[in-house]
Design brief:
Oligomer: single chain
Shape: flat
Strand content: 5-15%
Helix content: 40-55%
Distance between the termini: 64 Å
Length: about 475
């Protein structure tokens, strides 16, 4: 697409970024004009991964002819080697005499990195754009001249068609002067306006009752056209509702959430519980009330739409769960039981002799005690309680013995390191005093719910219900 045509097609989608779009297309999209060696995009809006500025830049690069780009997310490149491999990607071409062969890059420092970049891109005939999202995180890699090297890649590799684009909330210090584009904070409505302008998922029209299926062809076409008009009027309001309800600030995540929840939101229309007609266009508030009553925005579907952007996963699969090792899963189950079970029942549930308790006939003093307990509020409603680390570890070892799964912990497993990892992931939260996991002091609290723990238990063959006090 020609730059003028590209700009004309993008301006209606990004009405608040017309100046920035014109500058980007001028610097990057013209195939006959040289692009700058480096470009800095900064502003508060770039602190949100996948936000409006990143979405606009990706649209410019995807719509430009004769331009190849590689998008590097610096959130994922936590080591220099991961960063170098993300930039080079795959094998590189190496000249050896009159022959050109491919080999895997060997990168140890910035010098070999520059050589690998030249070997990877020197045969390209198109413009090459390397985009570094969240580039301010690169300062944590302990490479003092990394940013200067990235901005000078075109000069160091002698590839004039190579451009480095850095995306950061604020301009980094000690960076050479270079072209820059400022992105101010967009208004809250700009994100919903962008997603509303995109085509909505097509939900096919189907007659509800048997009498509706007897329509003539022209009647069916009229009703189908009215159906599309109703959906087109609902789509902008639905996008605004999803953005405000789930609090999504990323364009990519908002689009994925809307596409995933749109069919379920329209379900009352399709099964006839909510009426609609060409004259009135149906009732959006009726659909909204049905969605709230069914827990669409606060239930599993709403959370899944907010957190996941990939495949839906199969029914009953491990969707949205951490891929934790066996020891970490067992520790998380033990932490949940320590948070929600009273400490006085640990002997009953986790003693080596009996395992989970069997139900006995209730009578006398036992029945009186149980009736007293029934008057208390369930701990699941009160939330998790803090527990000492020693208690969680005792429950952990008891579960291993009870389930005969100690053999699954192959090798020299450092349990304290696994606990520290769970704390880093915020699956366990430290609430008491203490310097760390190994000090023996302090108290912890589990930070996951029942559904997650039950799924982890099923994945490793542990029936968590047997050890949970009601």
């Amino acid at each position: 697409m020609l730059p003028n045509e590209l700009l004309a097609s993008l301006n209606p989608q990004y009405p608040t970024l017309t100046t920035q779009l014109r500058t980007l297309t001028t610097l990057l999209s013209y195939p006959t004009l040289p692009s700058p060696p480096s470009l800095l995009l900064y502003g508060p809006a770039l602190s949100i991964p996948g936000g409006l500025p990143e979405h606009a830049l990706r649209s410019v690069l995807e719509g430009s002819d004769n331009v190849e780009f590689r998008w590097i997310n610096c959130v994922e490149t936590i080591t220099p080697r991961l960063l170098f491999e993300a930039v080079v990607g795959g094998d590189v071409w190496v000249e050896e005499g009159d022959e050109v062969r491919s080999e895997s890059p060997r990168m140890g420092d910035l010098t070999t990195f520059v050589v690998a970049v030249r070997q990877a891109y020197f045969l390209r005939t198109t413009k090459i754009v390397l985009v570094f999202s969240s580039a301010h995180l690169l300062t944590s890699l302990n490479l003092p001249t990394l940013l200067q090297t990235l901005t000078s890649l075109s000069t160091l590799t002698s590839i004039t068609s190579l451009t480095t684009v850095l995306l950061t909330p604020h301009p980094p210090r000690h960076l050479p002067s270079q072209p820059s584009i400022s992105f101010p904070t967009p208004p809250p409505t700009s994100l919903t306006a962008l997603i509303s302008s995109l085509p909505f998922p097509r939900i096919p029209f189907s007659p509800i009752s048997d009498t509706d299926s007897d329509w003539e062809e022209h009647e069916y076409e009229a009703r189908e056209n009215a159906w599309w008009e109703v959906l087109a009027s609902y789509w902008p309001r639905f996008v605004d509702t999803i953005q405000k309800t789930l609090g999504i600030n990323s364009a990519e995540q908002l689009q994925g959430a809307c596409e995933r929840l749109w069919p379920r939101f329209l379900k009352p229309l399709r099964n006839g519980r909510e009426s609609w007609s060409p004259g009135t266009g149906g009732t959006f508030m009726g659909l909204y009330r049905s969605a709230v009553a069914s827990g669409l925005f606060r239930g599993e579907e709403g959370v899944r739409a907010r957190l996941l952007l990939g495949d839906e996963g199969e029914e009953g699969g491990r969707v949205g769960q951490y891929d934790l090792p066996y020891t970490a899963k067992m520790l998380l189950i033990a932490a949940f039981l320590a948070s929600y079970n009273p400490a006085r029942l640990d002997t009953r549930y986790f003693s080596k002799g009996g395992g989970a308790p069997t139900r006995r006939r209730k009578g006398g003093a036992v029945a009186k005690e149980i009736r007293k307990q029934d008057a208390k509020i369930s701990q699941r409603l009160l939330g998790p309680r803090p527990f000492p680390l020693e208690r969680m570890l005792a429950i952990f070892h008891s579960l291993l013995d009870e389930e005969d799964n100690a053999g699954l912990m192959r090798g020299n497993v450092d349990v304290s390191r696994q606990v520290a990892t769970l704390g880093t992931l915020r699956l366990l939260v430290k609430t008491g005093a203490g310097d760390g996991v190994g000090d023996g002091g302090g108290r912890w609290r589990v930070n996951v719910g029942w559904e997650v723990v039950r799924g982890l238990g099923r994945s490793i063959g542990v029936e968590v219900e047997r050890f949970l006090a009601e």
